[in-house]
Amino acid sequence: MAAQDAVAIVFAGGLGSRMVKAQLPKQFITIRDKPVLVHTLEHFQSHPEVGAIYLSCLTGYIEHAWDLVREFGVTKVRAIVAGGVTAQNSILNAVQAALADNVPEDATALVHDGVRPVINADLITRNIATARERGSAITAIPCFETIAMSLDEAQTVESVTQRDLMYVLQAPQTFPLGEVFQVNTRSLEDGLLGKFVDQAHLMRHYGAELHLVPGLRGNVKLTTDFDLLQFRLLVESGALSSVVGAELS
User: Which domain of life is it from (predicted)?
Assistant: First the structure.
């Protein structure tokens, strides 16, 4: 890994409890002879500016993850560590692995879900460039639906937002590695670890200025059976290349 390289912090510690029919954790479900996690990792493996990948994974699947990394030639994976109780715990564990591997604190770190495979090289490039120039990069798309707030468990609407001001935040979410470590550690000390939706939410809570990078409409976190079905159809139909704007490897 060269001194100027970025690193990918990929967290894949979820059980996929919202997938009713899943027999495996969602990151290990196979789509066209390749697990979802590998589909995701290969984007960082093939990107020339990413020098290393640090992965957090379900404790009982670490050896399985290493087997997949070797089978599919994901040679940039430098460490696979146990995930935590929450996504934020898992991210912190992977960040600590990177620092223990002597990755400098000023290295650009792309924080990404292991079950968010619909990205491309251009998105990674723009995240790295924006984070280096402006200090952060948050992948986002305009909100196409009307967003309402309810304070009584979806019984009534408290308020409706102005849609043209709203954005859906995706991933990667990119910052200097040391900043990710410091802010996550601070939230642990404050008793807030695991209380944030994602790194953008966490960073903004502690005052960071967040800069948006245009994302992809299909760049969803595979959370439900429907999400997985959509990804399967995109891959098996050959339509994924048109969604991400690049040919499948």
Answer: Bacteria
Average pLDDT over residues 7-33: 80
Q: How many CA atoms lie within 13 A of 175 on its CB side?
A: 23
Tokens coding 78? 């430098």
> 154-205 pLDDT, tens per residue?
999 999 999 999 999 999 999 999 999 999 999 999 999 889 999 999 999 9
Longest dimension (CA), the chain: 54
168 within 8 A of 211, measured Cβ to Cβ = no
101: part of which helix (H) or strand (E)?
none
Task: For the chain, list the domains and their CATH numbers.
Answer: 6-239 (3.90.550.10)
> How far, in Å, CA of 142 to CA of 164, rounded?
7
CA dihedral 66, 70, 74, 79 (to 10 degrees): 30
